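Input:
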Amino acid sequence: MSRPKHDVTDAELAVLKELWALGPSTIRELTDRLYPGGATAHYATVQKLLERLEAKRCVKRRGRGRANEYRAVVEVTDLIDHTLRGAAARLCGGSLAPLLTHLVNTTQPDAAQVEELKRLVKRLDRQGGSA
Amino acid sequence: MSRPKHDVTDAELAVLKELWALGPSTIRELTDRLYPGGATAHYATVQKLLERLEAKRCVKRRGRGRANEYRAVVEVTDLIDHTLRGAAARLCGGSLAPLLTHLVNTTQPDAAQVEELKRLVKRLDRQGGSA
DNA sequence: CTCCATTCAGACGAGGTGTCTGAGAATACT
DNA sequence: AGTATTCTCAGACACCTCGTCTGAATGGAG
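Output:
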């Protein structure tokens, strides 16, 4: 449930996604996935991205043998939350409600997601939609 | 209903908000609002921002007397839409639905929004939740 | 000790942002 | 008319971020 301090860039996000898929990994493991047959330069690139992700409080580092093991400390939902709040702050005076309304009007969820929505609405009904 | 081609920066957004508030305006009018007692340098700043907004298809220009009159051709909802779709593309494989469920989960929708949600669910039910 | 992989510090070019300068064209004032 | 004021355009600028990369130091494994 950490909050990313700043926005995550595309290259950084690619590393994060790999971390989500692989679980805690070393730079080498990540590099081999992101740049198959990569040169030593790519290794350093991944390392720099991890360094910046660490500064943004998105990953944490721990020694594993001689190498370092990195693990993600943010989830997709954290990034979604951060993005949504940023958009609300810029465009809606900080309120998330207009975003919700907009999504309700423009979204085409699939069957499973409709089910989830029904459940959520039912729950909201039960607890009596407080402000 | 235009679509902004690229993201709008903070300074550009400030100009846009002034345009939304004032309606079609000249650079002078905008400058006086954004930089009260502003020097001639500020005038050029606003002009550059309008030039970039025009390149991003967010404003249009028309001669008014000797000066130019600028008017916004995007609404807040266009920027919201653009932002939301960008977030969905980056974080949710392009689907907006996860954003919706996230908002429903993390905000306390008021009565009106719960009603909106119910209507959405009903509508989706009727048309048999397509992808 | 030598070799190899990892780590660290820092550079680099490209691109974007916000600001500003200078010169030119059109208008108003006297 | 001639001067001054306003607007416009083109372009520079310093700063920052992003993605990439180089070089040297470190530390085990053979």
